[in-house]
Amino acid sequence: MSGEARSDALKLNSPRAATPDSWREGFGVIARILRLTFEHPWQVTFAIGGAMVAAILQLMIPKLLGHAVDQTQAIVDGGGVTRASLWVTAALLLVVSVLRGGFTMVQNYFAEAVGHHVAYRLRLSYYEKIQRLSFSFHDQVHSGDLITVGMLDLEGVRMFFSTGFVRAAFLAMMIGIGAFLLLTTNFVLGLLALSFVPFVAWRSSAARLKLRAAWLTLQEWLGVLTRAMDENLSGIRVVRAFAAQRHEMAKFDKLSQHTLGLQYERIGIRVRNTSMMTFSFFIAMGLVLLVGGQKVIAGEITVGTLTSFLAFMTILQLPVRQLGMMVNSFARASTCGARLFEVLDLNDEIGEAGDAPELAVGDGTLEFEAVDFAYPAAPDKPVLKGISFTAHRGQTIGIVGPPGSGKTSVASLLPRFYDVTGGSIRIDGRDIRSVALASLRRAVGVVQQDSFLFTTTIENNIAYGDPWAEGATIERASESAQLHTYIKNLPQGYSTLVGERGVSLSGGQRQRLSIARILMLKPPFIVFDDSTAAIDAATEQRIRAEMREVAGDSVTLIIAHRLSSLKHADEILFLEDGEVVERGTHDELIALGGRYKALSDLQGQPDDADLEDTKDDRDVENERHAVRQG
């Protein structure tokens, strides 16, 4: 991702900076939304066509009312008009009203259909985009902000066609054709009837600017509110453990009150402008009634003609009231669309050429050659410097070092969660940046310390990498991970539902399930990122023995704090401040008498051993308790 793209990602936390209030940008976003809507031409045609026909039928009603009034006057005056003619006019008025309602229904149905089609496409595009964006993007943007954009902002875009564009087309037809009819009927009264339109246009423009700014602020705080809820739900056990419910409620209430105030402010802007526009409408109607009444008295126009003018203005009153909602829809769509397209337009940092070949693993040789790495958020602070090693098929590389030495960064570079900033990583002599990303990640299995499990069955969690795997394959993988016996003792076995994030399993069980998930795929390269920290030493040794049988031909990288996990490694790298300061086998490093030997002596102290045994006993007891509880 370029520096520009990284800065764009950060703007989600401050949308005011992401979408400056400018007419040009707002119209650009609106134009882009309209291009998406016109990808459904026949539905758009039905929606707009229905709106136009409904507008024309609506405009016929004032004419028919005026004609009916003149007919009634003629009947009273004995002007030769029969009552049957009045009945015909009434029937025609009824038919026109029914047809207007029918075409309005067509307009609403197809306008909503277009909006939902656009939302469906954008929803998939957005979800697919956040699946592909690099870890560096997700490191900088809170998931609550992404949820807000993917739901609230997308909803603002969805509603635009029906509440904004189609409503604007309907109002344009009403005012355009109506203005022609009024001005050709009586020019002076027509001007008076339309005198409110310039004022409404001015207030609409002013309201749009204010509403867009209000929407920006509101969307920002809705994102903050979503973040607060997301963090609270993710850490609900910590909240309960510290009895902090009252504090969390007070914090959430404060955020909600602020958001409510912004809602009131936005509604206030819309109501004030709508009220002013409606007031100008009634002033115009009063002028028409005053001047038109004098013209009727003078015999210049009939009572029916004046009725037509007043009926037209009465019919136009509802669209005028809706004008504020239409302006609000344009403002919301331009704001929400800008935030949504901001994410969709981000460049992928971890990209690949369109013709990148699939990775075909042959000899299975892995090479790190003078690898440097710095996280995109801090490019001037390298976390890895000149890391080099080579591993062949069947070999194990161990990586150890103090916290912050760069161990996990090594694990993140092989599957290209991040790209190296210097040097290269090669598989069978081919730079991993030159092959198809999906094929690389199929070849590299990563078991992380924080084992994420989905809210589904144990079987589905193990088979996540191959949903069509047979039951025997899944059971074999769980046996290798020393989890099969525990699962079989559960009342529903492999069909047992795992709670959110695997909370129904102990830490060691979650790690073993993650190991089973990788072992089932048998990838040629396996990375264990401190993934046995919660597993007792005896179980870990059994897992290692099974792995030598199941995945003995794989290149294995083991990152661990516990040196007992690394003793069997063909080479061990001791990292410090991102550099390899010691390397060799376990025995060679012990004989060297350096940092590795000091760490080995520290972990070999009786107190630490006792603590480790206590942890192992506690893990076993947790498993027994889980079995008893079912």
From TrEMBL:
Please list every transmembrane segment annotated in the UniProt record, as residue ranges: 42-61, 81-99, 160-181, 274-291, 297-316
Query: What are the top taxonomic ranks of the organism?
Result: Bacteria, Pseudomonadati, Pseudomonadota, Alphaproteobacteria, Hyphomicrobiales
Descriptive protein name: ABC transporter ATP-binding protein
Indicate where this protein resides in the cell. Cell membrane
Known InterPro entries for this protein? AAA+_ATPase, ABC1_TM_dom, ABC1_TM_sf, ABC_transporter-like_ATP-bd, ABC_transporter-like_CS, P-loop_NTPase, Type_1_exporter
Q: What main location does UniProt list?
A: membrane
Q: Which residues does the UniProt record annotate as the domain ABC transporter?
A: 366-602
Bilayer topology term: Multi-pass membrane protein
Domain (ABC transmembrane type-1) ranges: 46-332
The segments labelled Disordered in the record are 1-20, 601-630
Q: Which GO terms describe its cellular component?
A: plasma membrane
Q: State the family named in the UniProt similarity comment for this chain.
A: Belongs to the ABC transporter superfamily.
- Keyword set includes Cell membrane: yes
Pfam families from the UniProt entry: ABC_membrane, ABC_tran
Q: Name one GO molecular function term.
A: ABC-type oligopeptide transporter activity
Sorted alphabetically, which CDD domains does this protein's record hold? ABC_6TM_YknU_like (cd18542)
Locate the compositionally biased regions of type Basic and acidic residues.
615-630
Q: Which UniProt keywords apply?
A: ATP-binding, Cell membrane, Membrane, Nucleotide-binding, Sugar transport, Transmembrane, Transmembrane helix, Transport
